[in-house]
Amino acid sequence: MSLTSLIISGFKSFADKTELTFDKGVTGIVGPNGSGKSNITEAVRWAMGEQSAKGLRGEHMPDVIFAGTQLRPAMNLALVTLKFDNQDRALKKDADQIEITRKIFRDGTSEFYINQKSCRLKDIVSLFLDSGIGRSSFSIISQGQVEEIFNSRPEDRRTIIEETA
Amino acid sequence: MSLTSLIISGFKSFADKTELTFDKGVTGIVGPNGSGKSNITEAVRWAMGEQSAKGLRGEHMPDVIFAGTQLRPAMNLALVTLKFDNQDRALKKDADQIEITRKIFRDGTSEFYINQKSCRLKDIVSLFLDSGIGRSSFSIISQGQVEEIFNSRPEDRRTIIEETA
Amino acid sequence: VRARFKATFRAVSEAFSEIFPKMFGGGQAALILTDPEDLLNTGVEIKASPPGKKLQKLSLLSGGERALTAITLLFAIIKVRPVPFCILDEVEASLDDANVARFADFLRAYDAKTQFIVITHRKGTMMRANRLYGVTMQESGVSKVVSVAISDQVSA
Amino acid sequence: VRARFKATFRAVSEAFSEIFPKMFGGGQAALILTDPEDLLNTGVEIKASPPGKKLQKLSLLSGGERALTAITLLFAIIKVRPVPFCILDEVEASLDDANVARFADFLRAYDAKTQFIVITHRKGTMMRANRLYGVTMQESGVSKVVSVAISDQVSA
Ligand SMILES: Nc1ncnc2c1ncn2[C@@H]1O[C@H](COP(=O)(O)OP(=O)(O)OP(=O)(O)O)[C@@H](O)[C@H]1O
Ligand SMILES: Nc1ncnc2c1ncn2[C@@H]1O[C@H](COP(=O)(O)OP(=O)(O)OP(=O)(O)O)[C@@H](O)[C@H]1O
Ligand SMILES: [Mg+2]
Ligand SMILES: [Mg+2]
Question: A133, B51, B83, D101: which sits with the fewest CB atoms below 10 Å from its CB?
Fold first, then answer.
């Protein structure tokens, strides 16, 4: 399975709807400090079901909604969509294309969709967990986290091996 | 007062006696990963009285002694000397030049000298503390520590201001 | 369960020992069970010696050596349990240029089926990517993404 | 004691607000007392908005913005209470090239009486140093230091 595209709208500094398409191999993301690169990483983690606002550098989940600038007002909705090619059925759902969408509103309410059909957050989380790309996989290494793998004690590292099984 | 030179012998990767002299302005230290740059920072912290082996990335203080390579045997002694120009008497000792030396032996015994006269570790620590360049000053920022200043809670940051007074 | 742990551990530790010299341009490393007699409770130790260096405590390694050893372990794990995509956010910040080049060569040579999305400000990584997206804030506080030609970005 | 804290706080916060736009090429920042009525127990909050951005929680700043804000606070403190020498070990690892240049310009323009010893692998910092020492391990595992010509190192 592969990630084909990422759509970000109203999430953190991405006030305007932005689409990134991904291909095979290595895609580099570059830009000055504070331009929004790590916000892209967090958009993917959020859409895959990240539950902790602190894990996304905020205090409350609505902190991920575009907060406005001197020229633009704050927005009321953050949306992220992930699209996957699933022909190999790595995601346990019988569909060639899979689209995950997560929304949050300023009042804190949330909506979740798999292939445009409303669902719960846990449906998204378990879809990835069952396919081995969930929380404990090494598919996303956030900024400053590369040495986390060492900070675990020897007893905890066995868990890393167990989860790799 | 200014730092005029640093002599390192048998400390960590500095098997051979090495002298660095310092002048006014900005001195850059460059080199590949693992070449010994941070060992230089630690040599200064150690000579100024660092008491924690963990703070120097070791488990026990003798870990700072050159441990040997495939070509060279381990050494039995680590020595670091710091030389200061003290004409402005910023260090509270009546001498134009001040030389601090710290030694540790493989069996764990240590020796300390101020101007070649034997002293205790606490004499070195208080010499710097009384002159405002002790532990709580910001004269040494170790690798990976620059954001430490943020990790303190607001109540702890007042201590930073108090100690700056 | 014990048999599966043992098999997984062997696979990850073999991958770790194999990848380490590729990342470091030499040297050796291994994963060691703290208690091989007790597979249900044993911990896992990491041993690493960069090229030409004797084996020492992990804590004594330099900042760049630690980061590259952690990256090596990550790659060993995804070799044993492949992921369809892997996002790396500035993992090579503390590497020198020679180590960045080896790291980026390793990414580039990886099975093209695994997608790597690498956030970086290192030229060595940029020049080995298949494509680049540039993130900018032409309008203050608002991010915008454009495709960037690798040659332009690297000579910038 | 309270008067001295108040005076020190004022001096550090003024220095912080003055240095921030120099480091960031614009923007503004301040130190705020959480409880100005209770100088003996008050905490200190850090507020920072990089150029063109609205004031937000410190946690939402980017990796590079956080590092540069911390560096700014460090310089505010040593402006109020000068140190004879200051050793900085790779503090600019997460800064982009434009921010490295401003940081290194600031070091270079600093009162020459304060000695800065800067461990770095960033060309922008190297080229603004007054002199360079190169650390190498020609013999494996054994460090050696040599003087390096800045022009050689920067074009390497
Ligand atoms: N809810 C929000 N609304 C608007 N802007 C936001 C919001 N949350 C974060 N930001 C802004 O996003 C910027 C941080 O972006 P990000 O962390 O992606 O930068 P980066 O490109 O990774 O930078 P670096 O190279 O320093 O790591 C900050 O300037 C922050 O103010
Ligand atoms: N007691 C010791 N005897 C011999 N070598 C040691 C000893 N302690 C540490 N070392 C070696 O010193 C090296 C680390 O040096 P240091 O941390 O100074 O590197 P560095 O130049 O700062 O690298 P980086 O750019 O990655 O931060 C390690 O390879 C380590 O094995
Ligand atoms: Mg970032
Ligand atoms: Mg270092």
Answer: B51
Please indicate whether residue B31, judged by its CB atom, sits closer than 6 Å to ligand 2.
Answer: yes
Which of D24, D91, D121 should one mutate to test binding to chain C, selecting the residue with the greatest count of C CBs within 10 A? D121
A4 vs B60: CA distance, rounded Å: 51
| Tens digits of residue pLDDT in A66-120 | 999 989 999 999 999 999 999 999 999 999 999 999 999 999 999 999 999 999 9
Q: Does D142 touch chain C (CB under 8 A)?
A: no
Q: Is D90 on the interface with C (CB under 8 A)?
A: yes
At C143, list the tokens.
């991010």
User: What is the number of other CB atoms lying within 10 angstroms of the CB of residue B159?
Assistant: 12
Which structure tokens are listed for D13? Answer: 């916060």
DSSP string covering A120-165: -HHHHHHHHHHTT-STTSSSEE-TT-TTHHHHS-HHHHHHHHHHH-
CB contact under 8 A, D64 and A33: yes
pLDDT per position in chain C (156 positions), as tens? 788 899 999 999 999 999 999 999 999 999 999 999 998 889 999 999 999 998 888 899 999 999 999 999 999 999 999 999 999 999 999 999 999 999 999 999 999 889 999 999 999 999 999 999 999 999 999 999 999 998 888 877
The SS3 call for residue C4 is: helix
φ/ψ bin of B144: left (φ > 0), alpha (ψ from -120 to 50), beta (otherwise): left
pLDDT in tens, A130-162: 887 776 678 999 999 999 888 888 888 888 888
Cβ-nearest to D62 among A33, A58, A70: A33
B33 CB near ligand 2 (under 6 Å): yes
Which residues fall within 8 angstroms of residue D83, CB to CB, at 6 or more apart? B132, B133, B137, B138, B139, D114
| CA–CA min distance A70, chain D (Å) | 7
* C-alpha neighbours within 13 Å on the C-beta side of residue D81: 23
Ligand nearest to the CA of C56: 2
D97 inside 8 A of chain C by CB: yes
C52–D137 CB contact, under 8 Å: yes
Residue B34 and residue C59: Cβ atoms within 8 Å?
Answer: no
- Mean pLDDT by 10-residue block, N- to C-terminus, for chain D (156 residues)? 89 97 96 91 93 89 97 95 94 95 96 93 95 96 95 80
- Strand partners of residue B81: B7, B101
- Determine the residue of chain C that is closest to A157 in CA distance: C44
Query: Position D133: which residue type?
Result: Y
Decide the pairing of beta strands B97-105 and B110-114.
antiparallel
Q: How many CB atoms lie within 10 A of CB D116?
A: 21
Is some CB atom of chain A closer than 8 A to the CB atom of D77?
no
Which pairing describes strands B97-105 and B140-141: parallel, antiparallel, or unpaired?
Answer: unpaired
Distance CA C49, CA D84 (A): 38
With beta carbons under 8 A apart, name residues in chain B contacting D112.
24-25
- Over its C-alpha atoms, chain C yields an Rg (Å, rounded) of 18
Please report residues of A whose CB lies closer than 8 A to that of C142. 13-16, 69, 72
Instruction: In whole angstroms, give the CA distance from residue A60 to residue A72.
Output: 22
Torsion angle of C-alpha atoms D18, D19, D24, D28, degrees rounded to 10: -30
Residue numbers in B near D131 (CB within 8 A):
23, 27-28
